[in-house]
Amino acid sequence: MKKPLIALVIMMIFCISNMAFAADSSFSDLPSKHWAYDAVTKLANAGIVDGVGDGTFRGDKTMTRYEMALIVANALTKEDKANAENKALLEKLSTEFSKELSGLGVRVKNLEDKDANSLKITGVAQIRHEWTKNPRSLVPDAALGGDPYYTGQPTDKSEIRSALYVFIDKKFDSNHYFHAIIGNDSIGGDTRTDSPMEFEEAYYASKNGNFEWAAGRFAPTIGKGLLFSAPYLDGGKVSFGKDVKTTIYSGKKTDYSWLLADTQFKLNEHTSMLFAYNSDKHKEYYNSKAVGLEYTGIPNINLKGEYGVNTAVNAKAVNDGNSPKGMYIKAKYKGANPFAVGSAGAWVGYRKGDNGFDSHQYTGALSAPNNWTYPAQGSSINDVKGFEYGVEVTVAPHAMLSFIYGDLEAIKVGGDGLADKSQKFLISQLTWVF
């Protein structure tokens, strides 16, 4: 076993062993006669409180101050739906549980008002170990007009990656803001580019009712993550609509121009639907459409899936003249909250993507082996099918540990397809939110 992997395992064990220290005053019982119970019951009846944990509010159950703070944090995100009386209740609850809310990373209203025009800096850091049965080369940036970033050999089945992303947000007023992400990722200590940090996003946005426009650099995500999204685009974005919301990106990544779009809406209280589209300028590699569904009507369970087809010229060429298709479904139980030590989740998913469906193999929401090339990839759904299993748990304040195993195999082996049938992988990852 490599020394870096031994160090990573020791660190993970150390984090898990620290779960016990989370018992502080936030977990003390809230007396059954406390006024907060009546206040939250009123908010629940008004549709402002959804609940905590399993998504329900049980007024007959005695809670800890921490559990009540979770409910208040949820309610604060829906303050715009509250009338004057309920806003007053939210203000009172915010004051009562200000300590717990601060521990959860929630900024209570009076602090928001005070710091409305300040610069907010947050971020995410990750360290992960990746093992792949048969590492494969991802399509380098040269395919998009840039330079390839090869940093290893295809025999490197085991690797350490680290990443740091810093989020910068400046709100000028209620309708105008600036957002940026400065990021760096590395493999085995080797940075992704000649520059140790680069802008993943940096744009100015302006809102007017349900219409918003923005200009700058974007790291776009469309749909539920099935379709290709360029690692970043320089250009513009518009979004509009309330019950039916549409978002459109148009911009350039090196020498390629892209158009990305999605439309999302609710069919009912628990079911949402979407349509997504992406295309490069000449429809060479991508001319993809997708439809997706998400269902949240089962307590503690989230179900979602997406199905798409790519009709681009080169996509058909490597798939025996047929338009390659892709799909995935995923069922997730609960989930880890970085601000709630001990919270956890698990999921199982299935994916299938014909050869050519995502030839550049850079999609946002799915997990897959990250192999030995740069830029670091988030996933792939190209010439692959099989099941994925994952678990996650918050092991310390702001720190989540996750394990993902993919029991995947290539659909097409040899020729234009992959060289190896097995595409199994295992990822172990620690994520810090700050």
Structural write-up:
- The protein folds into two domains: 3-114, no CATH class; 119-433, Porin, CATH 2.40.160.
- Helix content is 16%, strand content 41%.
- It has helices at residues 3-17, 35-45, 65-76, 84-96, 98-103, 109-114, 313-317; strands at residues 119-132, 149-150, 158-173, 176-187, 190-191, 198-208, 211-218, 233-240, 244-253, 256-266, 271-280, 287-295, 301-310, 325-334, 344-353, 373-374, 384-396, 399-409, 425-433.
- The strands form two sheets. The protein has a 16-stranded antiparallel beta barrel with strand order 1-3-4-6-7-8-9-10-11-12-13-14-15-17-18-19. A two-stranded antiparallel sheet has the order 2-16.
Helix content: 10-25%
Order of helical and strand elements: HHHHHHEEEEEEEEEEEEEHEEEEEE
Question: How is the biggest beta sheet arranged?
Answer: 16 strands, antiparallel, barrel
Low-pLDDT segments: 7-26, 107-112, 139-152, 370-378
CATH class of the largest domain: Mainly Beta
CATH superfamily of the largest domain: Porin
Arrangement of strands in the largest sheet: 1-3-4-6-7-8-9-10-11-12-13-14-15-17-18-19
Q: Give the count of structural domains.
A: 2
CATH architecture of the largest domain: Beta Barrel
Helix segment tally:
7
CATH topology name of the largest domain: Porin
C-alpha Rg (nearest Å): 23 Å
Separation of the first and last Cα atoms: 31 Å
Overall, the morphology is: globular
Output the structural class: alpha+beta
Give the averaged pLDDT, no decimals: 78
What is the β-strand count?
19
Note the beta-strand portion.
35-45%
Keywords: Signal
Protein name: SLH domain-containing protein
Organism: Sporomusa silvacetica DSM 10669
Domain SLH: 23-86
